[in-house]
Amino acid sequence: MKMKSSIGVIIGNRDFFPDRLVAEARVEIIDLFKKLAIPAVMLDTEATKLGGVETFQDAQKCAALFRAHRDEIIGVLVVLPNFGDERGIAETLKLSELNVPVLVQGYPDDLNKLDVARRRDSWCGKISACNNLYQFGIKYTLTTKHVVHPQDPTFIKDLQDFVAVCRVTKGLRNVRIGAIGARPGGFNTVRYSEKILQRNGISVVTVDLSEILGRANKLTQHDTSVQQHLQKIRDYASVGRTPDEALFQMAKLDVVLAEFVQENALDATAIQCWTSIQQNYGCNVCTSMSIMSESMSPSGCEVDVTGTLSMYALQLASGTPSALVDWNNNYADDDNKCVLFHCGNWAKSFLPDIEISTAPILGTSVGEENTYGALSGRTPAMPLTFGRISTDDPKGIMKAYVGEGRLTDDSLKTFGNRAVAEIPNLQKLMHYICNNGFEHHVVMNASKTASILKEALGNYMGWEVQVFDEPIRDSVPNGHSSRELVSQY
User: Fold this and answer.
1) Together in a domain, 105 and 206
2) Which helix (H) or strand (E) holds 428?
3) Which structural domain range is residue 380 located in?
4) Is the domain of 361 the same as that of 400?
5) What is the pLDDT of residues 341-380, one digit of tens each?
6) Global pTM?
């Protein structure tokens, strides 16, 4: 059973400020969490004074509570209804040993309530709290406004984005990716370092493609599991002119892939999708990969493990499926548009006209009759976040780029899975990709989540992150993201 994800809440307090501010904040935060359906873990009002954290003893109690829920807490919200005790907050996080993202919020003062009985001073207290977190080496996230009421729309978005940052961070620190088969011989571009991935908590489980095909060949069309997966495929997409023989081959392979994923507790897969499968088994694996991606278990082409990792990251940020695509063609003479393509295995969410077909380009070398299972479909206009994570082996680091644009309905007469993307300063993006040795694969997601990915990958994972279309900054957030680079592109 999947463990629920919760946010720990620390409500700071300082003894010479009004206690009722803590009580009011607790009610407001509980109400907001209920409204947003975010499970919370926080001290009871009986455990400490009003459930706040002020003394070292309070910090010990809150840390013990958090440790008891460490399997479900994916992030911590620090609430400052008044100046707060900066040491109590930092000590709680240190003692809890959670190592999760932290969002720091402070309440605004009312100009008509700056007397001793009603003032907050959270503006100042937040600076002190962050200073202590910095000293303790605890990474944290700031709200859009320095101080903000929980009912403010900007804070609600900040909180929702923060939960997404927590999902990405937790997911990437524990992800298991299946590498099924060897990369195609002509694709040095998708080489990667398993060791660098493992140092970042990312495990790769490998298997020879012959083992998968051997298991599939032992199945028959009469097996119950094959019949079930055949029906799943028919329910998923129009089969077009795909012959029954090819559908049975696809179903048998789908059974074995599903078993391999379950046996190894995999979150995602990268598959040797050509040419061995076509030459030795007689179909494409694209439909199975699309089904997995649509069901939030992303599957990437050409054993592109870090491309698949990118799919998973964007999926965690948005809560919707991702697709691994080629930066494939210019779009006429428009410098800010390009064609995204694969032959293809994109999730159904991107393909309203989805149909099981063949792969004509691949068919020229392996026989088109051996490529049934590739999908055909055009992606319509929708939001776009794009991104790519890679291992930079010469530097020994993880690096990434992310950005936003849009997918358009511009005319595009071709086959396979296809889309037209419009991206500001696309030419500079292409220069960056080429100059920094990134792959020809990129991931697209129908969302606006670049800021979430920047925070998760840069601040909390500690990777080198390039974000496109952001203002130049003189320094990195918190002083923590030593490898994050943000420039104007």
Assistant:
1) no
2) helix 426-435
3) 176-486
4) yes
5) 998 999 999 999 999 999 999 999 999 999 999 999 999 9
6) 0.94
